[in-house]
Write a structure and sequence with these properties.
The complex is a heterodimer of chains A (463) and B (283). Chain A is α/β, with parallel strands linked by helices and 463 residues long. Chain A is 32% helix and 16% strand. Chain B contains nine helices and 16 strands. In chain B, the strands form three sheets. Chain B has a seven-stranded antiparallel β-sheet with strand order 6-1-2-5-4-3-7, sandwiched between helices. In chain B, strands 11-10-9-8-12-13-16 form a seven-stranded mixed β-sheet, with helices on both faces. Chain B has a two-stranded antiparallel ribbon with strand order 14-15. The chains are: A alpha/beta (463), B alpha/beta (283). Chains A and B meet through strand 5 and helix 12 of A and helix 1, strand 7, helix 8 and helix 9 of B.
Chain lengths: 463, 283
Amino acid sequence: MPVKRVEKTPMPERDAVLRSHDFEEVNEGYGIAHAKFEAERCLRCQDPICIDGCPVRVPIPDFVHKIAAGDMRGAAEVLRSSNPLPAVCGRVCPQEVQCEEQCSIGIRFKPVAIGYLERFVADWEMQQAPVEITNKLDRAEKVAIIGSGPAGLVCAGELARLGYPVTIFEALHAPGGVLRYGIPEFRLPKDVLDWEIDQLRKLGVEIRCNVIIGKTIAMDELMGEMGFSAVFIGTGAGLPTFMGIPGENLNGVYSANEFLTRVNLMRANDFPNADTPVMVGKRVAVIGAGNTAMDTVRTALRVGAEQGLVVYRRSDKEMTARVEEHQHAIEEGVEFHWLTNPIEVLGDEDGWVTGLKCIRMQLGEPDASGRARPIPIKGSEFVMPVDNVVLSIGNRPNPLLLQTTKGLESNKWGCLVVRDQSSETSRDHVFAGGDAVTGAATVILAAGAGKDAASEIHADLRA
Amino acid sequence: MAKILEKRPLTPVTKLYKVDAPLIAKAAKPGQFVIVRIREGGERIPLTIADYDRNAGTLTIVVQEVGTTTMQFGELEVGEEILDLVGPLGMPLEIPVEGHIVGVGGGFGAAALLCLMRELRARGDTTTIINGAREKDLLILNEELTEICDNLELCTDDGSAGFHGFVTERLAQMIDGDAPGCPDMVVAIGPMPMMRAVAETTAAAKIPTLVSLDPLMIDGTGMCGGCRVTVNNEVKFACVDGPFFDAHLVDFEEAVRRNKMYVKQEHEAKDRSHCLKLAVGQD
């Protein structure tokens, strides 16, 4: 048996200085040679536990072996039959804590780059020819999906594959949810997202934008006169959280949601060709250290900030951002201010942001989240001069649907309550999954929830 | 896409549109708004629902041309489509008080009183509308407003029609007992300085007053937080908690300041669209 190489085949990346001024994708993707080379590193375990690490249970070894054998078409077919969003997941999944964490070769060496390979196959399919679609929507029961984010798209794709006519209702003018308004172009190009959504349309999925369930159409109407037999709620966690510190309403303070939406959905980077502006000064401070914070600070650089700063009350050990995102931000010159907690946004007499007053922190005993609790150091207050502050400290589920829909149980954080480990809500034939249930998490967990819900809906409708 | 069925200029810069939007017309209640986008790359802007006809499936909106998007809107003609139209958004207006309800409309704000005051009158309230503008030609919808309320009071800054003075001066007279009498509740819709002045006018007499705030918005569903306003020292999202708030508790200074956040960019965008028009010889 040949000796396996110990390192992952590196992902070709664009130069950090060049890329931090435009929105083109940072990761360039494997070529065929890279991909075959990397696929051959797979140990071909008898019990491929990498699959257990995947929330949508992609049969990983099958597609990896097909790449190694040069059968890209076959690899694409395997992927597409198990995950309706491979080009998205191959780009944004935290594989290092999922499939790749399980990978056997990773015990001694670096794991197989499953994520990079997934992306390679999906891109190959996009560039060559899409996998042929043969499903028929021959079932009588119609299913409504609320929200076109990852949970809703995957649920819709799975149900269409099972033969159900599916309609997705989306509040915004373009589908994709957080994949559209949240994740920037340089991590997930919008033409890739459009392509994936087109594949769902080819499956027969209907997408109706500009419809807000709970406002435009009531849940009762959906299930009554409109004749939907089941509903999946995948409305995500889109309600931004603010800190409640003085000065948060000064001009130049944004939620990460607003900042990213202005750029990703409304194309503020192209102002004044596009009509929506975004306000960016020389120094932009982003509060928080999750993936959204990394997206935000790197976006700020690309729309003209000279310096991007990340301000976080804990240390780099506790940050929730993926290693790759953190690394990319460092390469692009982002300054990290760990153990620093903002206590006030300062402004000038006209109400514009001039600085961020912070206090230094130290770490104490672990708190409820299991992470070390940050404790303020008395007398350590200082002012950081900045022109913008963007809060990226988490989102909660949007209460809009709950406010207007009877019989849907939720918890104190506004998350929908589901029965045991299922997707069943407190209302008959109404299912839910993704961030709307768990609170803000990842794209792939939402996709997994959408896939699980699809099989539960299928079972419910066949009962 | 929503087709424009009717277009009527109300003033040189204000136009009324009736659009085909059966789902929104069916769900709309007084006080709610819609968000529109006119073109690819265009902004999303909120517009108050002036009126709706559930049977005909139509929505009436009034657009005042103040910026790039509203000017582009003004160029849309009957038969053309609005690219994106979503709603109804915001909380419907609730008037807890019964009796004499006075609606104060400033400029194109009067349009938003149409469905509102009609519903109140149907409920049994006595309704008065104070419709104010700089001059006679800028007063809008007088005929329609007369039909749906008990008393229509006109005010102009220059005295060219009705009462000579601000809407707040006329309102103060009514509070002091002038016919049609002191209001039990006031609802004000119009430019921020006017709403602020109305709030000040009714504060001393402790007359419950609601104002309709129109901060900058993107999604209109609570997702961006750009529309946050401070009311009674609490931060609210105008899109989902509003647009109506207790006038005596609103931090107007902050609201005015936040609405001016993009003044520079707005000028830039306007100049640009003007230049583009010159380039293609439209202007």
